[in-house]
Amino acid sequence: KNEVEQSPQNLTAQEGEFITINCSYSVGISALHWLQQHPGGGIVSLFMLSSGKKKHGRLIATINIQEKHSSLHITASHPRDSAVYICAVLSNFGNEKLTFGTGTRLTIIP
Amino acid sequence: GAVVSQHPSRVICKSGTSVKIECRSLDFQATTMFWYRQFPKQSLMLMATSNEGSKATYEQGVEKDKFLINHASLTLSTLTVTSAHPEDSSFYICSARVNRNHEPSYFGPGTRLLVL
Q1: Min CA distance, A15 vs chain B (Å)?
Q2: Residues of chain A contacting residue B38, judged by C-beta atoms under 8 Å apart
Q3: Residue B21 and residue B28: Cα distance in Å, rounded?
Q4: Does A91 reach chain B within 8 Å, measured CB to CB?
Q5: B73-115 per-position pLDDT tens digit
Q6: SS3 A80
Q7: Residue A41 and residue B34: Cβ atoms within 8 Å?
Q8: Nearest to B105 among A30, A33, A41 (CB)
Q9: Left, alpha or beta for B56 (phi > 0: left; psi -120 to 50: alpha)?
Q10: In contact, A62 and A45? CB cutoff 8 Å
């Protein structure tokens, strides 16, 4: 079993739909990242959070430390949101390494 | 947000040659830089952790003599793929972070290496 698991692996939705991507992890963490990777390959850090909820534009990220679970939500989805979304956790062992989920490939159809 | 650059963005080389990839933090000093490789449709795999002024720490299975890492300053780390072979063809990504609590990692745009 992977330390970080994401679901779904692939998600196709119509423009305007509300999107939820889930991430579960099995290790103790100090922080969790949500990353976005576009087809060109570059990675953008969307959020880093260790508790509660963060919002940036149409993106919302939540984390429940007790349940070891985080969600990324996209409201009013748009074709430009099509990308791979990756959850990565920073362990609390102090080694600074990120452990990555396998990613969720999101496709928004106009 | 902070910016990390990589150069080159794409490189094609012949088998047996060496390729150097640069990773720079443009507006902050990165105490730690990380090098990853990513094969198509797979997740990022950490290759090594690089701290300024000290030797890099390599992950299990990564040959340190093959993938030379130099973290010469707080804004520059280089990865040299020595005697590259076709199986080294991959997408190489660096990230950088400041060694302070609650600071995120910032990722470079990646370098696509194709070895013929």
Answers
A1: 24
A2: 41
A3: 19
A4: no
A5: 889 999 999 999 999 999 999 999 876 666 778 899 999 999 9
A6: helix
A7: no
A8: A33
A9: beta
A10: no
CB B111 within 8 A of CB B21: yes
Cβ <8 Å between A48 and B104: yes
Hey, how many other C-beta atoms are within 10 angstroms of the C-beta on A73?
A: 16
CA distance B110 to A42: 6
Q: 10 Å Cβ neighbour count for A36?
A: 18
Residues B3, B106: contact at Cβ < 8 Å? yes
Q: Compute the radius of gyration of chain B from its Cα atoms.
A: 13
State whether residue A39 sits within 8 Å of chain B by CB. no
- By residue count, chain B amounts to 116
User: What 3-state class would DSSP assign to A102?
Assistant: coil
Radius of gyration of chain A (CA): 13
Tell me the nearest-neighbour CA distance from A10 into chain B, angstroms: 12
Residue type, A4: V
List pLDDT tens digits, range A55-87.
999 999 999 999 999 999 999 999 999 999 999
Q: In angstroms, what separates the C-alpha of A6 from chain B's closest C-alpha?
A: 12
Cα torsion A12, A45, A80, B39: sign: negative
